[in-house]
Design a protein that fits this description.
By secondary structure, the protein is α/β, with parallel strands linked by helices. Helix content is about 20%, strand content about 20%. It binds 2-acetamido-2-deoxy-beta-D-glucopyranose (2 copies). GO terms for molecular function: serine-type endopeptidase activity.
Length: about 850
């Protein structure tokens, strides 16, 4: 950073600071990003155009910010438009280099007028804090607890909340954890690896984070200072995520997944940020920082469809191509918390990037938390809140812990920490090797829930779970002798012109494209990894649309799903959807895209065009070039008329299962058995209806509700009991009275028994959810033998205190009523964008 320290104060007054040399005079000047070639110097542009050079944009070579007084900016803009038109002509002429005139302004390769800094990124915040419940510890659990104690003493773990960190070692639901302790016992704890947490700051003065804090990799883009300290009241999210990855093994709070790895903080979420700064932030110190953990994104409200701007897209590509000595920065993104609003991670241009590892959530019972978004771009899931439990981690403060961390925000960092462990045994893994390892070692869950497809590779994929949950032990083991993949190859089809109206309701518009073996040889393309489809669909109500991609091997990717709240009067404009569901299958054969307008109403539209992009491993890695940076002249690509057919499809399913929560009344993407590829599909093959939402907690065999039934009946009578009681009352009131007396006697008896028995348990529940568990008051704590802090530690005081369970800044207080079924709550409110 070439920023003088003194400027920082001035900049923070401007609100959002730029990392460039001149403070941004936002009111009086306009800013432009220019990509210039090697032969053109920024000072030449300054002289020739009368613009002021503000500096290079982060680590993007040849990309610079220039500014002009506002009065002159229209002329400048017009000039850039002319240059853009000239470039287009040159490209059309077929030989851009040759045709280049003597005009040195031809050295401008790309330009963009820069928007003011905006607040468009949002933390993937935890849903409301879970309930706490008490129960017996069974004899089997006693054994697991002993194993846990043994592991702790072997490793010298004395961290006070380690036993609450069920995501690391789950003594109560064995197997429902990251399976990481065996990795530590093998001596792998993350040494030598650095993860940057791109967020709202990192409390480097926390005793739990201080030993692993990497100052040189850290920067505060919000206050333009080298130290990304949390400042605002709600600047806690980044610290909590950091603790999950690299909290040190000491006597403070718990430990991180990679507790001997280092952690950097990059602060971007606490104020509006410009595209230039965001681009710089995700490449910040990218030779030192190995992994970028990002638990944020566009709003998860089921209405937003937002992708990073061109500079940020380029920075991501720059990161995987040049970061980490060319092995590539590893970007990890939280999938998003908007599932209860029909949101889907393919509407988010960060999570659906091929350059990011997209991580959804799974709860401590192995169930799908209702908030966690599904999509075809989801690679894996990792543990987080749900089932009335959350992630225990470090908080802001010298010795503060937090027991209520959750949402996909908490899942992403656990995957990042696991990757840190893999990189510590194999620093030479490329960003794609990391994705391969996740794909190969993820463990499938709930295989019978109807969401899984068996792929031609033999692996299974689910839009709800990706390839499964992260198994850190398997990941690190596989990494040890992993053979590095060859460089990335790609194939882009021509733009396929469709220009057909989309039928409504029971029909879909299908367009095919056939990929040949020769094309693949020509592209030096050996095996498939990611597939992206860029498309234009215009429609007067975006939320009515859905898109499927069918591969030659019969695998179906739900690229897009209907969203009930998405009223946007546009379709998809040059939007790129991504899928990992075709990983490892042969790309040769017929690919088809089916666009559906799922609702019969006055809203309609047209499927305009699309383009198929295949990404994979090269046949011959010796001189495979790097993919060019993304550009906005993709529209110059050759056009072809597409094969189009109308197919009869079943209407989009209306869910037949009883919703477990008012917000759960939506259709999840569900999969079918792969059909035979054919030009038109019989109705039943395209039937996407499913009898039930298989991933909803009540439908799932090992759901929270069944787990809850293990709990002791509460002394304050649960709602379920109450309902039962009321039903009884309506039927036989006299019998009810007798029964009530009977139960009361039973309870008293049990209470006496409990006080004397030898089981270890702790009674820490407080049925009144609105009553904060502020330590002693209102807390019943009794012991029979030694206490085990099953669900909560002392730090639980934090759980309901202050604003931690408040949604972030954009949330309107509208917390939905909890019911008694134990399924986790939705993000709890409608998130309203500030835009
Ligand atoms: C977890 O790790 C152990 C090694 O510590 C391994 O043997 C086992 O297969 C892994 N998976 C599970 C589910 O325990
Ligand atoms: C859809 O796109 C086509 C082609 O670009 C255009 O002619 C048509 O007017 C558009 N329709 C709507 C409703 O925007």
């Amino acid at each position: 950073m070439r920023v003088a320290g003194g400027i920082a104060v001035a900049l923070s007054l401007v609100g959002a600071a730029s990392a460039n040399a001149h403070p941004r005079a936002i009111e009086s000047r306009e800013f432009f990003a220019l990509h210039i070639d090697d032969s053109t110097s920024p000072s030449y542009i300054e002289r020739a155009l009368g613009a002021r050079h503000e500096g290079q944009i982060g680590e993007l070579e040849g990309h610079h910010t220039f500014s002009l007084p506002r009065e002159q900016s229209d002329d400048f803009n017009a000039l850039l438009d002319d240059l853009r038109a000239k470039r287009k002509l040159r490209r059309r002429s077929g030989n851009p280099i040759e045709a280049r005139s003597a005009d040195p302004l031809d050295g401008i390769l790309w330009s963009e007028k820069l928007a003011r800094p905006r607040q468009r990124l949002h933390k993937r915040i935890p849903p409301p804090i879970p309930d706490v419940a008490s129960r017996f510890i069974t004899e089997n659990e006693m054994k697991t607890l002993e194993t846990q104690s043994h592991i702790m003493s072997t490793l010298g773990i004395t961290d006070p909340i380690f036993k609450d960190q069920w995501h690391l070692f789950n003594a109560l639901q064995p197997g429902h954890d990251l399976n990481v302790t065996g990795v530590w016992l093998d001596g792998v704890t993350g040494k030598g690896v650095i993860t940057a947490v791109v967020d709202d700051g990192l409390d480097m003065y926390s005793e739990d984070l201080k030993p692993n804090y990497f100052a040189e990799g850290s920067w505060d883009y919000n206050n333009n200072s080298p130290e990304p300290k949390p400042v605002l009241d709600d600047d806690r999210h980044g610290t909590r995520c950091s603790g999950e990855i690299a909290a040190s093994k000491n006597d403070v709070c718990g430990v991180g997944v990679a507790y001997d790895s280092k952690i950097s903080g990059i602060r971007i979420l606490s104020a509006a940020i410009s595209d230039e700064d965001e681009a710089a932030s995700i490449n910040y110190k990218f030779q030192e920082n190995d992994i970028y953990s990002c638990s944020w994104g566009p709003m998860d409200d089921g209405q937003t469809m937002d992708a990073p701007g061109m500079l940020i897209k380029r920075a991501m590509v720059n990161g995987v191509q040049k970061g980490r000595g060319g092995k590539g920065s590893v970007f990890v993104f939280a999938a998003g918390n908007g599932a209860t609003y029909d949101d889907n991670c393919n509407f988010d241009g960060y999570t659906n990037s091929i350059y990011s590892v997209t991580v959804g959530a799974i709860d401590r019972y192995g169930d799908h938390p209702p908030y966690s978004e599904s999509c075809s771009a989801q690679l894996v899931v990792a543990y987080s809140s749900g089932g009335r439990s959350a992630i225990h981690t470090t908080d802001v403060g010298t010795n503060e812990c937090f027991a209520g961390h959750g949402g996909t925000s908490a899942a992403g960092p656990l995957a990042a920490g696991s990757i840190a462990l893999a990189l510590s045994v194999r620093p030479d893994l490329t960003w794609r090797d990391v994705q391969y390892l996740m794909v190969e070692t993820a463990v499938t869950v709930h295989e019978d829930d109807g969401s899984w497809q068996t792929l031609p590779s033999g692996r299974k994929f689910s839009h709800d779970w990706g390839f499964g949950k992260v198994d850190t032990y398997a990941l690190v083991q596989k990494a040890r002798d992993w053979e590095l993949v060859k460089p990335q190859a790609w194939y882009h089809s021509p733009w396929l012109r469709v220009h057909n109206n989309i039928p409504q309701g029971s029909q879909g518009l299908l367009s095919r494209y056939i990929v040949t073996g020769d094309q693949m040889k020509g592209a030096n393309f050996a095996r498939l990894e990611h597939v992206t489809v860029t498309m234009n669909v215009n429609h007067t109500r975006r939320g009515d649309l859905s898109v499927e991609l069918r591969s030659p091997g019969g695998v179906i990717s739900h690229l897009s799903v209907p969203r009930r709240n998405d009223e946007e009067n546009v379709g998809y404009e040059d939007w790129t959807f991504m899928t990992v569901a075709h990983w490892g299958e042969s790309p040769v054969g017929e690919w088809s895209v089916i666009v559906k307008d799922t609702v019969v109403n006055e809203h309609s539209g047209q499927f305009v065009d699309w383009r198929l992009n295949l990404w994979g491993e090269a046949i011959d890695g010796t001189d495979q070039p790097l993919h060019p940076l993304p550009n906005d002249h993709d529209d110059d690509h050759p056009y072809e008329e597409a094969h189009v057919a109308t197919t009869t499809v079943q209407p989009v399913p209306t869910k037949t299962s009883t919703p477990t929560h008012p917000d759960d009344q939506h259709d999840r993407p569900v999969n079918q058995k792969p059909p035979q590829a054919s030009e038109t599909f019989p109705a039943e093959e395209l039937d996407t209806s499913k009898p039930a939402d298989a991933t909803s907690p009540t439908a799932s065999p090992t759901s929270t509700s069944s787990a809850i039934s293990n709990y002791l009946p509460s002394f304050g009578a649960s709602k379920r009991t109450q309902i039962w009681i009321y039903a009884s009352l309506a039927m036989i009131i006299v019998f009810f009275i007798g029964l009530g007396v009977y139960f009361q006697l039973q309870r008293q008896k049990r209470r006496r028994t409990n006080a004397q028995d030898d089981y270890e348990f702790e009674m820490i529940e407080d049925e009144d959810e609105t009553h904060p568990m502020t330590g002693g008051a209102g807390r019943t704590q009794r012991r029979g033998g030694e206490l085990y802090n099953a669900f909560a530690g002392e730090s639980d005081e934090e759980v309901f205190s202050e604003d931690d369970d408040e949604p972030y800044r954009d949330r309107l207080a509208n917390i939905s009523e909890k019911d008694d079924e134990g399924e986790d709550d939705s993000p709890g409110s409608h998130l309203l964008s500030e835009k």
